[in-house]
Specification:
Belongs to the ABC transporter superfamily. By secondary structure, the protein is of the alpha+beta class. The chain folds into two domains: 238 residues, Rossmann fold (3-Layer(aba) Sandwich); 125 residues, Beta Barrel (OB fold (Dihydrolipoamide Acetyltransferase, E2P)). 28% of the residues lie in helices and 29% in strands. The protein has a six-stranded mixed beta sheet, sandwiched between helices. It has a five-stranded antiparallel beta sheet with strand order 2-1-4-5-6, with helices on one face. Helix 4 packs across helix 5 and helix 5 packs parallel to helix 6. 36% of the residues are buried.
């Protein structure tokens, strides 16, 4: 399967308007499951459409499997039908008057694939996606999840080198979304296809992707594995976008008089030096711990007093809301808490659990190793 390389790719829809995609450099590896993740309007769908050939570049170059398919400097443009890609939209776009079997082999018939090969490919993908038993039915007789499988089967039957998916699960209910995530993981493992998947759902990206590219306002914020993105966010935007409940952010402005801000600033300056460019620090809810009734806090932990304001069960875990110097802080636990509203506690966190960002909102260089050494 081919890899995809975007070099300095830009997309602009008119003079005076901001770039929908700006100076994007991205490498999507052979056989990779890449998720383009970001909020609405960040440029992820535009990027997918440029890879597919449905949008012309305003600048830069795209190559697939070593072949340049779109280049402004070289004046090259390869049409979408010649790029060897399959595209599945948010809408399933199934033919309502054709059976499931005929929908699945539609692309093969257009390519005039011989009957025996066509039937073999259709049987293989229908069996893999567990839709063989529906082959004589029509799309209106299937559920949303089953229709989604047919749309995927139609693309997989033509054996595309690259499969492009534009928020294909957004029309499904929660249970079907979960089932289809597992299905997509299985499809990727079975067919080894290079997949580019667009979503604004962080959990979809975290559970599906081998690699995530986080975008915002047309620019690439971070590319990495799901663990990289979650555990070492490159900047404050990535840290705040990924995670539920969201990361707790404490500002570290030198003029801040908030007791929690002052305590966090003093803690970090004592460990990183007075010259460190401190902008803010983030602590994920699951990294925060509570000490009750003057219980000892491990040495070296960041700590601050708080009072419990609410305990919210979510089924299998609990979200605890506390008031910390007038600020709402959230933490999570998988153990049933025995806390009451108004109870006084001590919040604390390991030094290595602190995500420190500079005044430009980028991850502070070298800080992770320094905090990891704190006893």
């Amino acid at each position: 399967m081919p890899d995809i390389i975007l070099r300095n790719v830009q997309k602009n829809y008119g003079a005076g308007s901001p770039n929908a995609v700006a100076d994007l450099d991205l490498h999507i590896g052979d056989g990779e499951f890449m998720c383009l993740l970001g909020p609405s309007g960040c440029g992820k769908t535009t990027t997918l459409r440029m890879i597919a050939g449905l949008e012309n570049l305003s600048g830069g170059e795209i190559s697939v499997g070593g072949r340049v398919v779109d280049s402004i400097p070289q004046g090259i443009f390869v049409g979408p039908e010649k790029r060897g890609m399959g595209l599945v939209f948010q809408s399933y776009a199934l033919w309502p008057h054709l059976t499931i079997e005929r929908n699945t082999d539609f692309g093969l018939r257009l390519r005039k694939v011989p009957k025996a090969e066509r039937e073999s490919r259709v049987n293989t993908v229908m069996k893999a996606l567990d839709i063989e038993k529906y082959r004589d039915r029509y799309p209106s007789q299937l559920s949303g999840g089953q229709q989604q499988r047919v749309a995927l089967a139609r693309m997989l039957a033509v054996n595309p080198g690259v499969l492009l998916l534009d928020e294909p699960l957004s029309n499904l209910d929660a249970r079907l979304r979960l089932e289809m995530r597992a299905e997509l993981k299985r499809i990727h493992a079975a067919f080894k296809t290079t997949i580019v998947f667009v979503t604004h759902d962080q959990w979809e990206a975290m559970t599906l992707a081998t690699t995530i590219a986080v975008m915002n306002e047309g620019t690439l914020q971070q590319r990495g594995t799901p663990n990289d993105i979650y555990e070492r966010p490159a900047n404050r935007f990535v840290a705040e976008f990924v995670g539920s409940p969201p990361i707790n952010i404490i500002e570290l402005a030198a003029s801040g008089s908030d007791p929690l801000e002052r305590a966090a600033r003093d803690y970090l300056r004592a460990r990183l030096g007075a010259a460190a460019d401190l902008g803010s620090v983030g602590i994920r809810p699951e990294a925060l711990m509570l000490a009750l009734d003057d219980a000892p806090v491990p040495p070296g932990h960041f700590r601050h007093g708080a009072s419990v304001t609410a305990v919210l069960p979510t089924g299998g875990s609990w979200i605890i809301e506390v008031n910390c110097a007038g600020r709402v802080i959230f933490l999570t636990t998988t153990e049933s808490p025995t806390l009451q509203g108004g109870e006084i506690v001590t919040l604390h966190a390991r030094p290595a659990a602190l995500h420190v960002f500079d005044s430009h909102q980028n991850r502070l260089a070298g800080v992770d190793d320094a905090l990891a050494r704190v006893a």
